[in-house]
C-alpha cells in the first residue's frame, strides 16, 4: 500500500518538476491532472499516521491524517485546482512551477505531525510563494516581495526557536495542543501569529498581495494564512487571548479598507478581517466555534479567491486596479460583474451564500459562551465587511461613474475558474450539510432558522441603506490616489529614518574625534621634528627628501653594477 | 454618439427604481421584525429593531471614522517609492555647503 504512504505534497512537487520540462497543452493537462488525481487519492486515505521515522532520537511524522487536517487538505486541493484553471492562459514557467510548489508546501504543512516537519514546510511556503510576487517583474513588486520574504522567514525562525524550546521541555516534537504555559508556547504562537496576520504583524499581507501578479494573488490568498489558521486550531484551541486578537483583526482592517484606493489591497484588508473571525472561533474553542472557524476558512478560500479572481480579471483587461480609475465596467464585463457580485454576497454572508453558513457559527458560539462585547464587535465587522467588500468592491469597479475604459470579459479559462468558485459559493450556501459533514465535530447546527436569517438580512440591508444614504449626502469618502500609512510605516519609514539619523550622528562624532586626534598627533610630530632640527641636520625636516631618493638610486645602481662583475 | 448602446444604469430612472426596491426591502424587513417570532439569545436583541439600527449606525460610524483617519494617514501615492526625497535634499545642501567652504574630508 505504498500509495497511501505517499504524502499529498509529493505529487505536487513531482508535478512542479515535470512542468519544467513540458510545454503547451501537455503542461496544461498535467497541471490540471495533479490536483484531481491527488484529491481522489486523498478521499481513499483513512485517518491515522501513515509515515513515521526516527531522526536524532526524535519521532518525526511527516504524514498524519485526521479530520482537521483533511478538511484543509480538501480546500487546498480545490483552491489549487481553481487557481490552476485561472492561470491556464499564462506562459510563465516561473509562476506555474512556484504555484505548484506553493500548493504542495501548504499540503505538507497541514499533514505535518511534528513541529520540525511543520517548520520545513513553513519556510517552503515563504520561499515558493515569493516568486508569485516577483513574477510581476517590477521594482515595486521586487521590494514588496523582499519585505514579504524577510517577515515570513522571521516567522519561520521564531517557529524553529520555539520548536527547540518545546523539544527541550517536553522531549517530543509532536505537533498537537501546545497552549501558552511555557516560553515555547508563546514563541510558537508569535510565529503562527505573524503568518496569520495578527494586528501589527499584518502588513506583509496588505503590502505584498496587491503587488503580486494577477494569478499569483489568487494562490497567495488561499494558502499562507489558512495554514496559519490550521496551525492555531491544532495548537491553541480555547486560548482566550485569541478571542481578543481575533476581534481586533475583524474590526481594524475595515477602516483601512474603506479609504484604500487599490481594490486588491481592499481585499487584502478584508482577508485579515475574515481571518479574524476564524481566530475568534479558535479562541472560543467549543465544538461549535472550532467548526465555525474551520468551515469559515473553507468558505473564505473560495469566496476570497473568487473576489481576487474578479479583480484580477479587471486588472488583466484594463491594466488598472485603483478605484479612482475604474468604474462603469458592468457594460463591457457583464459576466465578471455577476461573478464578482456572487463573491461579494458570499463574503458579506447573505443567506443562501456560503459565508452565511459558517460565519453565523462563530457568532453563535461567541454569544453562547457569554462574550457579549466580542459578539457586538463581530456584528459590527459583519456590517463593515459588507460595506467595503460587499458593496465597495463591485460598486467602484463595475458601477459608480463611467471611467470610459473599454474592456472585454477575460479569457474563458478565467471565467471558468470564477464560475466554479461562484457555483461552490452558492452550492455550499444552499446545501451546507455537505460542508458540515466534513467538519471535525458533529454539532447538528442549522443556520437557516428564521431568527438568524432575519437578523442577518436586516443587518445587511440597513448597511446597504447606510451606503446609499452616505453616497447621496456626499459623505462617502471618494476614491483618491493615495497611500495610507499603516503599521508598516514603522519599518518602512520611521526605523530607516531613525537609523539614518543615528548613523549620521555617529559619523559626525567619529569624524570630530579623529580630527582632534590627528591635530594632537601633528602637534607632537612638529614638536619632535623641531627638536631634531636643532640636534642634527640629517634627520631634519628641512633636509630635502629628494636627496635621499637620489642616494638610494645611487646605492641601487652600485648594486646593479656589482652584480654584472 | 447616437449609435452608442444604452446600458441599464445609463438611465437615471433605473437607478431610482433600484433604490426604491432597496427602500421597500428595508421597510419590509422592519415590518417582519414584528411578525416573525424570534427566539432570543441575548437581551440586546429584545430592543426594538436592534439589527437594522446597529447595521445602519455601525456603517455610518465606520465611514465617518475612516474619513477622519484620512486626515492623518493619507500621503501621496508614491510616498514609499522615493523614500529619501527629503533626505536627498538635505544631503545635496550639505554637500553644497562643504564645497563652498572647501572642507571635503579625506574620509568622505
UniProtKB/TrEMBL annotation, chain A:
It is found in: Cell membrane; Membrane. The keyword Membrane applies. It is a multi-pass membrane protein. The chain crosses the membrane at residues 6-22, 29-49, 69-90, 97-113, 119-136, 148-168, 183-201, 208-229, 241-259, 266-290, 296-315, 336-353, 373-393, 414-433, 453-472, 543-562. Residues 112-382 form the NADH:quinone oxidoreductase/Mrp antiporter transmembrane domain. GO terms for molecular function: oxidoreductase activity. Signal peptide: none annotated. Coiled coil: none annotated. One of its GO terms (cellular component) is plasma membrane. Keywords: Cell membrane, Membrane, Oxidoreductase, Transmembrane, Transmembrane helix. This is Multisubunit sodium/proton antiporter, MrpD subunit. It comes from Pseudoalteromonas denitrificans DSM 6059.
Automatic annotation (TrEMBL), chain B:
Residues 98-108 have a biased composition (Basic residues). Keywords: Membrane, Transmembrane, Transmembrane helix. This is 2TM domain-containing protein. The chain crosses the membrane at residues 20-36, 48-69. It comes from the Bacteria. It comes from Pseudoalteromonas denitrificans DSM 6059. The keyword Membrane applies. Residues 83-108 are annotated as: Disordered.
Amino acid at each position: 500500500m505504498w500509495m497511501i504512504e505517499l504524502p499529498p505534497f509529493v505529487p505536487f512537487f513531482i508535478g512542479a518538476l515535470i512542468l519544467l520540462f513540458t510545454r503547451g497543452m501537455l503542461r496544461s493537462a498535467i497541471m490540471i491532472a495533479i490536483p484531481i488525481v491527488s484529491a481522489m487519492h486523498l478521499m481513499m486515505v483513512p485517518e491515522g499516521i501513515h509515515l513515521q521515522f526516527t531522526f536524532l532520537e526524535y519521532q518525526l511524522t511527516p504524514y498524519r491524517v485526521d479530520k482537521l487536517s483533511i478538511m484543509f487538505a480538501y480546500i487546498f486541493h480545490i483552491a489549487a485546482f481553481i487557481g490552476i484553471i485561472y492561470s491556464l492562459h499564462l506562459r510563465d514557467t516561473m509562476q506555474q512551477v512556484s504555484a505548484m510548489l506553493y500548493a504542495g508546501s501548504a499540503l505538507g504543512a497541514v499533514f505535518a505531525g511534528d513541529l520540525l516537519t511543520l517548520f520545513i514546510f513553513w519556510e517552503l511556503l515563504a520561499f515558493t510563494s515569493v516568486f508569485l510576487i516577483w513574477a510581476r517583474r517590477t521594482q515595486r513588486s521586487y521590494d514588496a516581495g523582499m519585505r514579504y520574504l524577510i517577515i515570513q522567514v522571521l516567522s519561520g525562525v521564531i517557529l524553529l526557536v520555539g520548536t527547540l524550546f518545546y523539544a527541550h521541555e517536553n522531549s517530543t516534537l509532536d505537533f498537537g495542543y501546545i497552549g501558552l504555559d511555557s516560553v515555547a508556547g508563546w514563541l510558537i504562537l508569535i510565529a503562527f501569529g505573524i503568518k496569520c496576520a495578527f494586528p501589527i504583524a499584518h502588513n506583509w499581507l496588505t503590502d505584498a498581495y496587491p503587488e503580486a501578479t494577477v494569478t499569483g494573488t489568487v494562490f497567495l490568498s488561499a494558502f499562507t494564512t489558512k495554514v496559519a489558521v490550521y496551525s492555531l486550531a491544532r495548537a491553541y484551541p480555547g486560548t482566550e487571548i485569541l478571542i481578543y486578537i481575533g476581534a481586533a483583526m475583524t474590526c481594524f482592517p475595515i477602516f483601512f479598507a474603506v479609504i484604500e484606493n487599490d481594490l486588491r489591497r481592499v481585499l487584502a484588508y478584508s482577508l485579515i478581517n475574515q481571518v479574524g473571525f476564524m481566530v475568534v472561533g479558535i479562541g472560543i474553542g467549543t465544538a461549535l466555534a472550532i467548526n465555525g472557524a474551520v468551515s469559515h476558512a473553507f468558505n473564505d478560500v473560495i469566496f476570497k479567491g473568487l473576489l481576487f479572481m474578479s479583480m484580477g480579471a479587471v486588472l488583466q483587461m484594463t491594466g488598472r486596479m485603483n478605484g479612482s480609475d475604474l468604474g462603469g465596467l458592468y457594460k463591457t464585463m457583464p459576466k465578471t460583474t455577476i461573478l464578482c457580485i456572487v463573491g461579494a454576497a458570499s463574503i458579506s454572508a447573505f443567506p443562501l451564500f456560503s459565508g452565511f453558513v459558517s460565519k453565523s457559527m462563530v457568532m453563535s458560539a461567541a454569544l453562547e459562551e457569554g462574550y457579549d462585547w466580542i459578539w457586538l464587535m463581530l456584528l459590527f465587522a459583519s456590517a463593515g465587511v459588507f460595506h467595503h467588500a460587499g458593496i465597495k468592491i463591485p460598486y467602484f469597479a463595475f458601477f459608480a461613474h463611467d471611467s470610459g475604459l473599454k474592456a472585454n470579459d477575460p479569457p474563458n479559462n478565467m471565467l471558468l475558474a470564477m464560475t466554479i468558485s461562484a457555483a461552490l459559493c452558492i452550492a455550499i450556501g444552499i446545501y451546507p450539510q455537505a460542508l458540515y459533514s466534513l467538519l471535525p465535530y458533529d454539532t447538528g447546527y442549522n443556520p437557516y432558522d428564521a431568527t438568524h436569517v432575519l437578523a442577518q438580512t436586516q443587518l445587511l440591508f440597513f448597511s446597504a441603506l447606510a451606503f446609499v444614504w452616505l453616497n447621496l449626502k456626499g459623505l462617502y469618502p471618494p476614491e483618491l490616489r493615495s497611500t495610507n500609512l499603516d503599521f508598516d510605516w514603522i519599518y518602512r519609514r520611521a526605523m530607516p529614518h531613525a537609523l539614518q539619523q543615528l548613523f549620521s550622528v555617529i559619523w559626525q562624532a567619529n569624524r570630530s574625534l579623529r580630527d582632534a586626534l590627528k591635530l594632537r598627533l601633528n602637534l607632537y610630530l612638529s614638536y619632535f621634528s623641531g627638536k631634531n632640527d636643532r640636534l642634527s641636520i640629517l634627520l631634519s625636516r628641512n633636509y630635502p627628501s629628494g636627496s635621499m631618493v637620489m642616494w638610494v638610486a645611487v646605492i641601487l645602481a652600485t648594486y646593479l653594477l656589482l652584480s654584472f662583475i | 454618439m447616437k449609435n452608442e448602446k444604452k446600458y441599464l444604469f445609463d438611465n437615471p430612472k433605473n437607478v431610482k427604481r433600484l433604490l426604491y426596491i432597496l427602500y421597500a426591502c428595508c421597510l419590509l424587513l422592519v415590518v417582519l421584525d414584528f411578525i416573525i417570532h424570534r427566539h432570543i439569545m441575548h437581551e440586546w436583541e429584545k430592543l426594538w429593531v436592534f439589527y437594522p439600527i446597529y447595521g445602519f449606525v455601525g456603517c455610518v460610524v465606520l465611514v465617518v471614522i475612516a474619513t477622519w483617519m484620512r486626515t492623518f494617514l493619507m500621503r501621496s501615492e508614491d510616498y514609499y517609492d522615493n523614500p529619501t526625497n527629503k533626505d536627498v535634499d538635505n544631503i545635496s545642501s550639505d554637500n553644497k555647503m562643504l564645497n563652498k567652504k572647501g572642507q571635503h574630508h579625506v574620509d568622505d
